[in-house]
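Still learning. Show one?

>
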Amino acid sequence: MTDETREYEVAVIGGGPAGLTAALYTTRLSHDTVVVNRGGGRAAMMTETHNVVGITEDVSGKELLRTAREQIQRYGADYVRDYVESVEQSGDGRFRLSTDEAELTAERVVLATGFNDVRPDPPLPPTGRGLHWCLHCDAYMFVDEPVFVMGTGESAAHVAMIMLNFTDEVDLLLRGDDPQWSDETDRQLRAHPVEIVSEDVTGMEKGDDGWLEGFEFEDGQFREYRGGFPMYGSNYNAELVDQLGCERNDDGTVAVGDAGETSVEGVYAVGDLTPGHNQIPVAMGEGANAGIDIHYSLREFPKSVEEIDAEGDVSPDEVPGISDELREAAREFRATGDD
């Protein structure tokens, strides 16, 4: 680790759509910003991008994130590929971030570390080629196609019923486990044309294009599927949330206000860490809200009447309220003709 401590106004931890959007806003709104990202994440796994207006489906998640990273860097943000080991608030109210390679400080912290989906045991098809994690993104792909849902809980039962809006061939795969849903849900489920398959999966077939064609089961049956949704829950990447003492909800998400503010002043949470739909446009909106709220709390001007009375009028030498680094980045950006 270097002995140098780099100072910022805003530190964003996590480089998915929510974190990168927050950084885009804080940077363009004149605040020195760093994004620290360890890599990976749900968006990076996407083979295609769905439900993002203006982004066509031939754009992968990696391409989307790479373009976003290049965009914020051109505006003047720093992007660091590193792992944040700890965050603590010092006596002056600033936050100190310790990573594998550096020490950083910031006045505001945005947590955008997301969660990991709990994966069922193999055999499984590749993500994006028969294994899908987002009902709202991918259900459209399976109109009139045979679909599976894996799981034993309430969410699995309800997703199986929801998929009947798109296809009349829906199987709910218990994979040898007992169902855990309520009696009411069981009554509801059995009133819908969903086939409940108790036997575990023992094998799988894929086509030449890599897409799932179907599963083999313990009883010797082979069932055709184009794809489906595992519903086994989420593991939140919330170590830093708990280090900082941010309040969490019963489901593990971080309790936040309208702009993503947490119970700890100066700390925001956005994206999949927070309650609501886990969608790229939703995450982007949360990042934008947080970025704007941070700007309101950090911007130098206008000075309040109380500040003017205490400190005097604003001198022309005090403006603009933007760092030299970001001023230079803005000049370079305009010079390319892309403004």
